[in-house]
């Protein structure tokens, strides 16, 4: 084999192979290209990092102090608000005792006036004061001060004694067994009415108990000696009382068993029926299945009287009626079945025992 043939046949790529030399040159060239590409890539990465750093790192640095500033400003504002809230409290706390008592007393008086409730203030007896001078100072009677403070001996009023002073004349009453508000007012001050007695003593219920203390205002008397703005109730008719308040009875022809909310007065036909007190006629009619011919009067202090089973009536709604003025005559109309007057008294819708009023 000739040299030429040998050279072209050598697959091992010996030193005498010209193709191998060309390949070696290509490999070196490729390496340079790869290195250049890598360098270019690195440069591009660095450029990207530089661009990101320049465009995005600065705002992040600027946002941090903004956040810090916001956090610092919030407690500053809150602190100022707290200080402003506390300042008036300090001023109020530092007010003298006398300046605080004056508005409190005014509020108490206003509330008492609105509710008609009695209110008290305390008085410490000073040197040179007496029961008379204290009563004159508060424009009260001596009896009021003695009663409210349960004083049995005037000599017990000494310097330093603390007295309760009510806002009006009256007495302190201890409830006895069998008492009711209507019985107490009728006994001590008929012009007052049980409803006013309840309000004056700030009672939430009409129920009272033995031993309970109630303030009863004094009776107001006119110059002629009569009770002011009040007419005592009188019997509306002559006759025999056959039904009592609270009694369980068979109601006439109906044969219904009921508890009387008033009284029955029996007499003959044509017996005059008169107004038990001064008032206004607010209702009349003929309830054939119950009261028959009836008249209803409205009176001061929330009182109302009802007259039933009349033989005939001679008044109409709206008439002004004086105490003792005739309303009609006795009869047996309605479901009573005999000549009888049904008479009842109520105040603010609460039935009362007429026997306590006359």
Describe it for me?
- This protein is an alpha+beta fold.
- Among the domains are: 120-166, Membrane-bound Lytic Murein Transglycosylase D, Chain A; 240-356, Glucose Permease (Domain IIA) (Distorted Sandwich), CATH 2.70.70.10.
- It has seven helices and 16 strands.
- It has helices at 3-9, 18-93, 97-115, 131-138, 142-148, 181-188, 194-200; strands at residues 120-124, 162-166, 170-174, 213-217, 240-243, 248-251, 256-259, 263-266, 272-274, 279-287, 292-298, 303-313, 320-321, 326-330, 340-347, 350-352.
- The strands form four sheets. Strands 5, 8, 9, 10, 11, 12, 13, 14, 15 and 16 form a ten-stranded antiparallel β-sheet that branches. Strands 1-2 form a two-stranded antiparallel sheet. A two-stranded antiparallel sheet has the order 3-4.
- Strand 15 (340-347) and strand 16 form a beta hairpin.
- Helix 6 packs across helix 7 (194-200).
- The protein is elongated and about 150 Å long.
- It starts with a helix and ends in a 6-residue tail after the last strand.
- Mean pLDDT is 75; it is low at 1-16, 58-115 and 221-231.
Q: Care to give the gist of this entry?
A:
By secondary structure, the chain is α+β, with helices and mostly antiparallel strands. It is built from seven helices and 16 strands.
CATH-defined superfamily of the domain at 240-356: Glucose Permease (Domain IIA)
Structural class of the helix and strand makeup? Answer: alpha+beta
- Helix count from the secondary structure assignment: 7
Helix content: 25-40%
Q: H/E order of the elements?
A: HHHEHHEEHHEEEEEEEEEEEEE
Radius of gyration: 53 Å
